[in-house]
Design a protein that fits this description.
elongated, binds guanosine-5'-diphosphate, binds magnesium ion
């Protein structure tokens, strides 16, 4: 597991480690010049302005209080503070006290919602759970087929309607089926358009209303899927979805393709939302649970 997250962070680490090594060179004096170089480096690695400022504030304070003379110690403190910022809440997925547990997946087109659902379905199925999928992306016919392909691969059933159908009707049927069939985990896919916020808001509200009415506490997780490659843009997307849908966590995909792993810290800190899952490739096994300490270490060590 540890090597997988390290592998997923290879590009980010390659980007950060050398530069960080230069700024925090062994034997270098810990002074304001070093702090300024470090600040620039964090901004360049997509930590974002507010998160960088917060990290630098904590770093300056601790270096002063702990009378740090050694650049290596600055690195250790940086790792600790990053790890702390990555814990704004519970990073494990919630399991409902009584089955079924329902997760709703949101996000713009192409970020990896359907793929993540497919990977997760396989994981739960392999661990002996009864899994059901809901094809809530009725906007494109191909989206329904794509989910069915993942369903076949994982050996789990898919509740689907016709292309163009009301997604909340799919959700209603899926929850009804989940209760009737003794399903443990229901994973709901949705359409990804964001260009019309009003429409999205209306559709998501309806889905949530139907879900909450049919099953107490449902959905148990509302997860925003974000593509790590989009960097700061993802942060703006996340804010919009959070306003509309009340997110409980983030799934960060395509970490394998991104050199700007700092975005993870920016998201967790700016939105105060935990990262719950990380995608590190296109294959079914390329989905990891998020561990803040491992992540902070894999980012530059
Ligand atoms: N490299 C990589 N590709 C991914 C990952 N997750 C998804 N993808 C790819 O991203 C593309 C879009 O994924 P899809 O699930 O259809 O996105 P959706 O529109 O949000 O449902 C597909 O080609 C996936 O194989 C990941 O973690 N790493
Ligand atoms: Mg999709």
């Amino acid at each position: 597991m540890f090597s997988k997250i390290r592998e997923g962070l290879t590009k980010s680490r390659n980007f950060l480690a050398d530069k960080l090594g230069a700024v925090l060179a062994i034997g270098r004096k810990v002074d304001e010049e070093l702090m300024e170089e470090l600040e620039e480096l964090l901004i360049g690695a997509d930590f974002g302005m507010s998160t960088t400022m917060l990290l630098m504030e904590k770093l300056r304070y601790r270096c002063k209080r702990e009378n740090v003379q050694d650049a290596e110690v600055v690195k250790k403190i940086l790792r600790e503070e990053i790890s702390a910022l990555l814990r704004p809440g519970e990073h494990r997925l919630t399991i409902a006290p009584t089955a079924p547990t329902v997760y709703l997946f949101l996000g713009v087109n192409g970020v990896g919602k359907t793929t993540t659902i497919g990977k997760l379905a396989k994981r739960y199925k392999d661990s002996g759970k009864n899994v059901l999928l809901a094809a809530g992306d009725t906007f494109r016919a191909a989206a329904i087929e794509q989910l069915e392909t993942w369903g076949e691969r994982a050996g789990v059933q898919v509740i689907r309607h016709q292309h163009g159908a009301d997604p909340s009707a799919v959700v209603f049927d899926a929850i009804t089926a989940a209760k009737a069939r003794g399903v443990d985990i229901l994973l709901i896919d949705t359409a990804g358009r964001l260009h019309n916020k009003e429409h999205l808001m209306e559709e998501l509200r309806k889905i949530r209303r139907v879900a909450g009415r049919e099953l107490e506490g449902c959905p148990h997780e509302t997860l925003l899927v974000l593509d790590a490659v989009t960097g700061q843009n993802g942060l703006a997307q996340a804010k919009t979805f959070h306003e509309v849908a009340g997110l409980t966590g983030i799934v960060l995909t395509k970490l394998d393709g991104s050199a700007k792993g700092g975005i993870v810290v920016a998201i967790a800190n700016d939105l105060k939302l935990p990262i719950k899952l990380v995608g590190v490739g296109e294959k079914v096994e390329d989905l990891l649970d998020f561990d803040p300490a491992e992540f902070a270490q894999g980012l530059f060590d």
